[in-house]
């Protein structure tokens, strides 16, 4: 796909079309894999789930839509140039790939909401050997890629909302894991970063 992108003419509309397809691939993988999950032992409340779903919807709405009544959000921050369109698609593809890789590593332990599963496993291999939440890392990276194509202030605002929301969701997940795995999770926590690899090891 990236070879085709490099070898063909590109414009912002085509770049966004590629980007949307990449996000659709991610959503399709999530849907297919959601049919093979362990039963839930403990879950966050509906109110807690809304606390991260609502801002996520706002973040992605800002990414893909130009507000009609807050025109200042449509201020262009990046040049409307092919280098940003191509780089944006490539970064989006990398982020989607990272998220899918991390999702496959979790297997049936994954859930769209904060949960603990029956016979839950603490995954510490692959990307999880360096990062505690690589799915979120991939989503954030893909968001940056698509935002680079759009190049407007609304995308930066959306990214800030996404980052804050995923941070709080990740902290809630870590609370669950700490209670379930105790010292094992504490040791894992000390060796990994939340969204990026930890630079120094204990």
Derived from helix and strand composition plus strand pairing, the structural class reads: mainly alpha
Taking the alpha carbons of the first and last residues, their distance comes to 40 Å
Largest sheet: 2 strands, antiparallel
Number of helices: 7
List low-pLDDT spans. none
* String of helices and strands: HHEHHEHHH
Strands side by side in the biggest sheet: 1-2
Give the SSE map:
Layout: H1 2-7, H2 12-33, E1 40-43, H3 46-64, H4 82-106, E2 115-117, H5 134-150, H6 153-181, H7 183-191
Antiparallel strand pairs: 1-2
Task: Outline the structure in words.
The structure is a single chain. This protein is mainly alpha-helical. Helix content is 63%, strand content 3%. It is built from 7 helices and 2 strands. It has helices at 2-7, 12-33, 46-64, 82-106, 134-150, 153-181, 183-191, and strands spanning 40-43, 115-117. Strands 1-2 form a two-stranded antiparallel sheet. The longest helix is centred in the C-terminal third of the chain and has 29 residues, at 153-181. The mean pLDDT is 87.
């Amino acid at each position: 796909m990236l070879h085709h992108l490099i070898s063909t003419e590109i414009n912002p509309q085509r770049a966004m079309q590629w980007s949307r397809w990449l996000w659709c691939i991610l959503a399709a993988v999530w849907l297919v894999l959601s049919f093979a999950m362990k039963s839930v032992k403990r879950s966050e409340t509906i109110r807690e789930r809304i606390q991260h779903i609502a801002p996520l919807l706002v973040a992605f709405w800002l990414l893909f839509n130009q507000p009609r009544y807050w025109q200042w959000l449509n201020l262009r921050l990046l040049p409307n140039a092919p280098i940003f369109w191509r780089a944006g698609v490539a970064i989006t593809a990398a982020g989607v790939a990272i998220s899918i890789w991390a999702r496959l590593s979790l297997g049936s332990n994954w859930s769209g909401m904060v949960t603990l599963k029956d016979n839950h496993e603490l995954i510490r291999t692959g990307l999880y050997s360096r990062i505690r939440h690589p799915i979120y890392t991939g989503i954030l990276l893909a968001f940056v890629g698509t935002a680079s194509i759009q190049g407007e202030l609304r995308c930066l605002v959306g990214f800030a909302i996404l980052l804050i929301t995923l941070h709080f969701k990740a902290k809630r997940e870590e609370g669950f894991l700490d209670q379930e795995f105790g010292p094992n999770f504490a040791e894992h926590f000390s060796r990994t970063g939340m969204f990026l690899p930890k630079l120094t090891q204990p």
